[in-house]
Every structure is written in C-alpha cells, then in structure tokens.
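ok here's Triosephosphate isomerase:
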Amino acid sequence: MSKQRAKLVVGNWKMHGRLEANATLLQAIARRAAALPADVRVAVCVPFPYLAQVQSLLEGSRVAWGVQDVSANAQGAYTGEVAAEMAREFGASFAIVGHSERRAYHYESAELVAVKTQRALEAGLTPIVCVGETLEQREAGTTEQVVDVQLGEVLAKLSSEEAAQIVVAYEPVWAIGTGRSATAAQAQQVHAFLRAQLAAKGAAVADVPLLYGGSVKPDNAEELFRQRDIDGGLIGGASLKEADFIAICEAAAAASAAQAS
Ligand code: PGA
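and the structure:
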C-alpha cells in the first residue's frame, strides 16, 4: 500500500470578494490554519485583482494562494487575459484550470485546458485540473468516459515528471453550488478510476493529490476526506464563510488522523 498522502483543502472564491471582507476572511483563515497539523495544506484561489492583497496578508502564513484560470498564452496581444507568470509574480502557488464553469460559459475544450495546464506548470504554478460529468452524462452512465477524456487530454501533453506535479479535482457538475454533494461512495468510485488513470502515466503520478469538489460543507467533509482516494477538497460556497472553511480544514485533519491510525 502506498504511503499516506497529505490532505489539501483549496477555497475557490469564484467571482466573489471585496477588499474589506477579504481582509477579515483571510486573517481569520491564516490564524486558524496555524493550528492545523502539518499534513493538512490550505490554499485560497481568488479573483486576479485581489492577488496583491492576498499576498500581503498571507505571506509567511500556512495558507497558500492561487488563481482560478490562466491564459493559454505566455504573453502577447491577448486583451483581457492574465498570464500564469503574472500570478506567479504575486506569489501564487496554484492555478485552477478547466473548472466546469469555464468549460461551460467560456467554451473551454479539453485541449485548451491541457494547454493552460502546461502554461501554469511552465510558470511554476501547480495546476488544479478540474474534471467532472454533467447530470445528463451521469444518468447516461458515461461518467468514467467523460473524465477519462478530460484528464486524458491533459496527461497526453505532459511528461510523467510534469504530470507528477499537478493536482486533479473531481467536481461533478450536478453537485457544484447545488447543495447536492456526491455521496462519499460515488466520489470514491470516480477517484479510484482517476487514480488508476494517473498511475498508468507513471508511479510518481499515482500519488498526485485528488480533490473532490461540489457542495462540500462542514457536515459532509470528513466522510468524503476519509475515502481512500480523496485527498482533500475544492471548496466553493463554503470557502467564503470563515467558520465553514475552517471546519472543513479541521475535517481534513480529522480524516487524516483517522487514516493514520
Ligand atoms: P461549491 O463549488 O462548493 O459551491 O459546490 C465547488 C467548485 O465549483 O469548485
């Protein structure tokens, strides 16, 4: 059996935030995160304009930060785009790529998501590659095919050394923002499938963090995080509420302790 993997909890603020509210939230998270065990890592992915604020408030804390998208291009005449390297200059560690909201509302293809993953890696960011099926696809029994194509397109563009540096987030579209989380068993089943797909790329790739996302809340987090192949969560709505986000980080610590015993 492979060694126990650390837990990772990442907040995805989406298009939320205001300077004053951010400061209160970030200071509270940083303070509470200091008490977490070393095997629980915490990060927040914020809208681009807040990167400087996040950097100044979180530098030196246990909380890392990142962005929710990067351009597929390194630089140039791409009005409105933000390069991965720019986020890196503000100390970002992570970049979410291929979130279902971007695939749906910005028509991002699996191929484009793969290119964005490469740009993030080149800039020294850890890409959090999101995959997940719609309700229609789940009901048609094609969940595994869908995530296989989404992740496969990314893995095909990376060497195994590069692939070992990514994070993958399984986020069933029907569970995002709906209050209807996947059950722990449903999530674990897809995670096991993804783990096998990663392992096929190389031994080092098998242990990349595999996060679950979609209506993770304080009351379902620990059960999800106790699953064998669930290494943490990508948290949307609950990451905006200080008490909920902290409780979810603490659930990750509890799950990790349970797995160690
Ligand atoms: P949610 O969002 O936690 O609000 O369901 C998760 C996500 O979209 O990353």
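+1. The CA atoms of residues 135 and 174 lie 5 Å apart.
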